[in-house]
Amino acid sequence: MTALSVEESHKASWRRPFEAWFDGVERGWAIPVLLVGFVAIWTAFFCIAYINASIHPDVLEAWSLGRDFAWGNAKHPPLMGWIAGLWTSVFPVTDWSMHLLAMTNAALALFAVDLIARRFVRGDRRVVVLLLLMLLPAYQFHAQRFNANSVLLAIWPLATYCFLRSFESRAVLWSLAAGAMCALAMLGKYYSVFLIAGFVFAALLHPARMSYLRSSAPWLSALAGLVVLAPHLHWLKTNGGESLGYAMQVHGGAPFVAVAQFVSKFLLGITGYLLIPAAVWCVVTRSSPRAQWRDLMRMEPGLLLLALVFIGSVVVPAATALALGTSLPAMWHLQGLFPAVVVAVCAARVPLQRRDAVNFAAVMAVLSFGALLAAPLHALYRNTHAFKENRNFAKPAALALTAAWHEAYGVPLQRVSGDDVLAFAAAFYSPDHPFYSRPFRFQYSWGLPRAQTLRRGWSALCFADDPTCTNWMTKVEARAHDFRRLTLPIATSLWGRPGVSTTVIALMVPPRHDATDPHSLPSSEPLDDVGARRRLPEQDWDRIVVPPRESP
Questions:
Q1: Which of 164, 480, 520, 544 has the fewest Cβ atoms within 10 Å of its own Cβ atom?
Q2: According to the model, what pLDDT value does residue 164 have?
Q3: Beta-bridge partners for 461
Q4: Strand 415-418 versus strand 448-449 pairing type
Q5: Tens digit of each residue's pLDDT (9 = 90 or more) over 199-249
Q6: Could you tell me the CA-to-CA distances from 48 to 45, 238, 516 in Å, in that order?
Q7: Mean pLDDT of 342-356
Q8: Distances in Å between the alpha carbon of 34 and those of 28, 209, 344, 353, 430?
Q9: CA–CA separation, 175 and 181 (whole Å)
Q10: What is the mean pLDDT of residues 430-449?
């Protein structure tokens, strides 16, 4: 055998598994294998890379919200809390469990995109669509923060799939499903109103609009959406529209010049996110951007509908931000980038060679395993360079507070407040799992707990170098009378290497009556804990006592 034939044989040997995998796309097993591998690699990456820090505060917040079923709260719609609560009713309350939740949600999002793609293409292109999307930060680094944004990763493509089926078939079940999924998206985040706006935009501009609008499909969708949303709308009415007010308070009221900058960055950000998959797609197909654009101008009606959904979901929020004077980060739209990738790949008439598809898949595999191998380096770096959220100190502070509480009072720790990073972490990591004890309407206004709240037993954590939090703690002490204030030095380490350190202040107010179990309290006494039996009436906390701190 010549040297050239040996080299060709060697090349063919590494290509065979990829060839077999691509052959399995239409047999039904290749895409599931891809998604399972995706979840396994990236869950392992985050477990290793973040081994010396707590999970992101947004994830801890979602878990706190999900400790009790409710149709809303003062900060966000309830879907992320529902999912986190349901997940931890099956899986343990641990870091790896929450990382697995985040990556499973991302994999479900990619599966939903494949449902859309397979309506227009077959075989290799279905895989390429998903691989191109994996180049975006949305499905790994954005997804690992399971919050009100990332919960939409799966909901938006599922809603889009149902809308496409409804528009094309006018079928009753697909129309009802489209409306229900739109409502579910709204229960994830109110920003999803712009997905619905994209559907309306597409339905009105598509050449087949009249046959759709004259059918019962749009009305069935609207009816199903209202039915699913009705309990939350009732909650909003009875609670003064708290979560809507929070959104406008935090993101509204900007001057026009600032809003124009927000909108410009929003549009440029979306363009920037899509440039990488667009460039890679041109390289994989060995085609020019001009040829890709020419194919886009000749897309079939189904792809045109999907393209209009994408355009509408981008244009409408930009126009709304200008009209209402609100901020508009491009990150809010990461879950809505998939239609652009699907349309670009499915509309392209240039042939996709199997050799090029295999090369692309092999490169993505190398990058994924390379990221996994680099995870320990990230952990070592963060051991000596603290996260900006101070996540390095959250878990050890939570355990130190729990140990001090048990030593002092000998009963379970049931309420914790103070700095959000520390308080959410204490609720999650403490073996007692105390409730995050500040109503979300007071989360950034630093109100004081009432005396009867303190009498049930209460604790708080602040970083010693945070004057806003420590000044608030001093005012709580004046109301508590009986308390202990501790200074907790927190020193971290990883694999025997010393890490960053800080000092945390703990305030402990002992229970003054037999109410160590919050669920044993008389029904006449409201609870202030997120996830407890009833939402705390506003009068159970006093309003602003120190200047509000910027939202983390």
A1: 520
A2: 97
A3: 418, 506
A4: unpaired
A5: 999 999 999 999 999 999 999 999 999 999 999 999 988 887 766 666 555
A6: 5, 45, 37
A7: 93
A8: 11, 37, 21, 20, 36
A9: 10
A10: 78
Angle between helices 152-169 and 95-117 (to 10 degrees): 20
Residue partners of 140: CB distance under 8 A and separation at least 6: 42, 45, 106, 134
Q: Rounded to whole angstroms, what are the CA distances from 536 to 89, 216, 440, 519, 525?
A: 24, 43, 10, 14, 9
Listed by start position, the domains of the chain span: 3-372, 391-542
246-253's contacts with Cβ under 8 Å and 24+ in sequence apart are 246/74, 246/75, 246/76, 246/440, 246/441, 247/190, 248/326, 250/551, 251/326, 251/327, 252/324, 252/325, 252/326, 252/327, 253/325
Q: What angle do CA 308, 309, 310 make, to 5 degrees?
A: 90
pLDDT tier at 547, thresholds 50, 70, 90: very low
Residues in the chain: 552
Q: 433: closest CA among 399, 461, 466, 460?
A: 399
Pairing between β-strand 415-418 and β-strand 435-436 as defined by DSSP bridges: parallel
Q: In which residue are the tokens 């979901």 written?
A: 313
The Cα 281–Cα 129 span in angstroms is: 9
Q: How confident is the model at residue 516 (pLDDT cuts 50, 70, 90)?
A: very low
Tell me: the pLDDT tens digits for 143-188?
999 999 999 999 999 999 999 999 999 999 999 999 999 999 999 9
Residue 498: beta bridge partners?
A: 493
Q: What end-to-end distance do the CA atoms of the chain give, in Å?
A: 65
Query: Can you read off the two tokens belonging to residue 388?
Result: 């900006």
Label residue 360 exposed, middle or buried (CB < 10 Å: 0-12, 13-18, 19+). Answer: buried
Half-sphere exposure of 391 (CA within 13 A, CB side): 21
Taking the C-alpha atoms of residue 113 and residue 452, their distance in angstroms, rounded to an integer, is 51
DSSP string, 227-246: HHHHHHHHHHHHTTTHHHHH
Number of Cβ within 10 Å of residue 529's Cβ equals 26
| Distance from C-alpha of 228 to C-alpha of 24, rounded to nearest angstrom | 38
